[in-house]
Amino acid sequence: MSVFRLDWRVRFADTDPAGIVYYPRYFQMVDGVVESWFSDAIGTGLRKMALENRVATPTVHIEADFFRPSMLEDMLEFSLIVLDLGRTSCTVSVTAVCEGEKRLAAKAVLVYANLTDYCAVPFPEEMRAAMTPYLLGSDDE
């Protein structure tokens, strides 16, 4: 199984007045990790999906556990794996660690949908093939 990784330095805009990551910003970070995964690992950036192919991957469910506060200038190491890959949706797990300490564990359900009538459509086969190595339990050898 492959794991997508992305480093994220906590910026001033990510924090509250105490210098701690404001929890809604974590959801934006998770969305940024997913966006980078599609662009860098899957090979289909959101610009191409939305503007050329008229499809998107909206999040229809998200949940998170917060373990320890993250502070201004912390370097968060995000990792993403696919927990479930269906015909029109996938469930991803995104975790953030700082210096070996878990800060966040999130799970999000994404739906592949057209932007004409906002209905779910099947993932293209080439996209499914690129996502499969990230599927929990897959053997990427």
List keywords for this structure.
single chain; 141 residues; alpha+beta; Thiol Ester Dehydrase, Chain A; 5-stranded antiparallel sheet; two-stranded antiparallel ribbon; 24% helix; globular
Q: Provide the structure class.
A: alpha+beta
Number of domains: 1
Computed over alpha carbons, the radius of gyration is 16 Å
Straight-line N-to-C gap: 9 Å
The CATH superfamily appears as Hotdog Thioesterase
* Mean pLDDT reading: 95
Counting DSSP E segments of at least 2 residues, the number of strands comes to 7
Instruction: State the CATH architecture.
Output: Roll
Q: Report the helical percentage.
A: 10-25%
Overall geometry comes to: globular
Q: Characterize the largest beta sheet: strand count, sense, and whether it forms a barrel.
A: 5 strands, antiparallel
- The SSE string, one letter per element, is EHHEEEEEEH
What count of helical segments does DSSP give?
A: 3
Give the amount of beta strand, in percent.
35-45%
CATH class: Alpha Beta
Q: Which strand order spans the largest sheet, edge to edge or round the barrel?
A: 1-4-5-6-3
What would the CATH topology be?
Thiol Ester Dehydrase, Chain A
Summarize the structure.
The protein is an alpha+beta fold and 141 residues long. The protein is 24% helix and 35% strand. It contains 3 helices and 7 strands.
Provide an overview of this structure.
The chain is globular, with a radius of gyration of 16 Å. The N and C termini lie close together (9 Å). A hairpin with a 3-residue loop joins strand 4 (75-85) and strand 5. By secondary structure, the protein is an alpha+beta fold. It has a five-stranded antiparallel beta sheet, with helices on one face. It contains three helices and seven strands. The protein has one domain (4-131): Roll (Thiol Ester Dehydrase, Chain A), CATH 3.10.129.10.
